[in-house]
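User: Hey, my collaborator sent me this sequence without any context and asked if I could get a structure. I don't really work with proteins. Can you help?
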Amino acid sequence: MYSKRKNITDWGVTLVFAVLLALGIRAYVAEARWIPSESMLPTLKIGDRLIIDKVSFHFSGISRGDMIVFEAPPASKLDEVLIKRVIGLPGDTVAIKNGIVYINGQPLDEPYELEKPRGDYKAITVPENTLFVMGDNRNNSYDSRFWGVVPEELIIGKAVARFYPFSNATFFTM
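Assistant: No problem. I've predicted the 3D structure and written it out in structure-token form, which is a compact way to encode the shape of the chain:
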């Protein structure tokens, strides 16, 4: 009787520890997210599942071209989490002319597949501790062109991999 009760207790403690560990990892290290909209087409499709790294960007920073997940800025009037591509870093001047994105007066080399934006966007300088972001589906993305820059404190993490659908599983590198 004693050994059976001890065995059940051991399993219970192990299960509780495993659940707490999983919750801790999700809260502070990495989490899975799914794509709810077409704003990142053709790179990400509705229903894609991603792994979001919540830690490394605090140490290695965010680079132009990274896909970040963040809480929608108040100016967007949205109450949701968004994913967009980083276009402008603090101190950069961002402009769009004839469908070409310019950073500090130079055309941005965008090796990822995307839709060219229609129209122009007046040059702005990205303030410190903020980022200018855009969706890859440029003509169907609600992004920094409409609601301004993203304060760095709203960043949840960086998309590091797509794990579903399995046939399109990949790591994202820039």
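In plain terms: Helices lie at 2-28, 57-60, 144-147. You can pass these tokens on to your collaborator as they are.
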